[in-house]
Write a structure and sequence with these properties.
Number of helices: 10
Number of strands: 19
Distance between the termini: 55 Å
Strand content: 25-35%
CATH superfamily of the largest domain: Vaccinia Virus protein VP39
Bound molecules: S-adenosylmethionine
Strand order of the largest sheet: 15-14-13-16-17-19-18
Structural class: alpha/beta
Length: 388
């Protein structure tokens, strides 16, 4: 795509596909396409035409997985270099205000920004590209090269998401520009955070939790005890410490993540207690006398399969009823869910009956403008805050 123009191949849509395209959904599932599409290779640009041979738009073909076509552009004209660059300018403009508060943000948020399967996170002068399928690798690399120029980045790292890398055995980390820094420091308001891009989960840090870090750091937690479940590298624990908490327990199954937390996200080491444990088991054995004023529950994605949703919902119910036993009077419970298969209303209707009464829902947090929601599955992160 960099040097040669993209040569689109014509693909005639059936009625079902046209209906999906018109609905604004960015994915055409394999069950909707005919086997004729199999002649194309991964990443082929398709010119999607209707029954009257009129061009509706353009998409990228994927020979593997559930999604066969990812929609890239609507309209008669093919995507050209100028189109990508202009679109990126618009996207970056929407994030401009965030950069007063932080130098780490998501520059491209996949389908939600109109660039399917491509995520680009920025940490200071380092960009991290993630591509969720081979069919969007060249799209991702091209967008990342434009971002490098626009933001004057020094380093560009290409990280293949863990699930894809382990399935396909593709190399999971490549330096496309500059070098891979062992650590990158970035700021968020009055907090200094650190990310280890090479060893960290996803692009290294959970930028989508910025709104929660902001909220926690603005609370009055002087003299309070905090239980941070599924803490990863303890950025929420740091937010609690900044808010004055006297004691913070960070619990995670990853010893490495907790070691990083202790090294980089702690102001007064005496206040923090790292616990390496499976939260589900650990909560069952935690003595009931251990009470906390703020309990944060931020588990990983529980499933990507529709059939597994009831099991995931059971796990959420179990987590909240176990956590509730350890909440002080007037305490706060933060319930987060990043399972995109569980809708916002479903999550609310699952958690609310478990915790309220006695708890009252006092706030719902939305991700910030670098995590826009462009379609239903894109609304993956739900954060509910309850007070006792
Ligand atoms: C969504 S991330 C949490 C992000 C974190 N709250 C932060 O502030 O960056 C989920 C975390 O859950 C951890 N994890 C996954 N399964 C676990 C389990 N059964 N018990 C404890 N931790 C677990 C992972 O190691 C990961 O760090």
């Amino acid at each position: 795509m960099k040097s040669k123009p993209w040569v689109a191949q014509r693909y005639q849509m059936n009625k079902d596909i046209l209906t999906i395209c018109k609905s604004g959904h960015p994915w055409i599932f394999r069950s909707h396409v005919s086997s004729a599409i199999e002649v194309f290779e991964a990443g082929q640009l398709l010119r999607l035409v209707d029954a009257n041979n009129q061009t509706w738009g353009y998409g990228l073909y994927d020979p593997d997985g559930l999604i066969a076509i990812r929609i890239l552009k609507e309209g008669k004209n093919p995507p050209e270099n100028n189109w990508f660059s202009k679109r990126l300018d618009q996207i970056l403009e929407k994030r401009a205000h965030l950069r007063n508060y932080t130098d780490a943000f998501r520059a491209v948020h996949g389908e939600n920004d109109g660039f399917p399967g491509v995520v680009i996170d920025i940490y200071g002068k380092t960009g991290v590209l993630q591509t969720y399928s081979a069919s969007v690798d060249s799209l991702g690399r091209y967008l990342a090269s434009l971002i490098v120029e626009k933001l004057q980045l020094e380093n560009l790292i290409w990280k293949i998401p863990t699930k894809r890398a382990s399935k396909t055995k593709v190399q999971d980390l490549r330096v496309l520009r500059g070098h891979l820094p062992a650590k990158v420091c970035f700021r968020e308001g009055k907090m200094n955070l650190t990310v280890e891009i090479g060893s960290g989960q996803k692009s290294g840090a959970f930028l989508d939790l910025r709104a929660l870090r902001k909220w926690i750091s603005s609370q009055k937690l002087h003299g309070k005890r905090v239980l941070n479940l599924f803490s990863y590298t303890g950025t929420l624990g740091l937010a609690a410490e900044v808010a004055g908490a006297k004691e913070i327990w960070n619990v995670d199954i990853s010893k490495g993540a907790l070691e990083t937390a202790q090294k980089v996200h702690v102001l007064n080491i005496k206040k923090h207690r790292p616990v390496v444990a499976d939260v589900f088991e650990w909560l069952k054995s935690l003595p009931e006398k251990e009470k906390f004023d703020l309990i944060i529950v931020d588990p990983p994605q529980m499933t990507s399969q529709v059939a597994q949703v009831p099991v995931a919902l059971r796990a959420y119910r179990q987590l909240y009823s176990l956590s509730l036993k350890h909440l002080n009077d007037r305490g706060i419970l933060v319930a987060a869910c990043c399972t995109s298969r569980i809708s916002r209303p479903k999550f609310k209707e699952t958690v609310c009956p478990i915790v309220s009464p006695p708890l009252k829902l006092i706030k719902t947090l939305q991700p910030e403008d670098d995590h826009p929601v462009g379609f239903q599955e894109g609304d993956y992160l739900k954060i509910l805050i309850f007070e006792n």
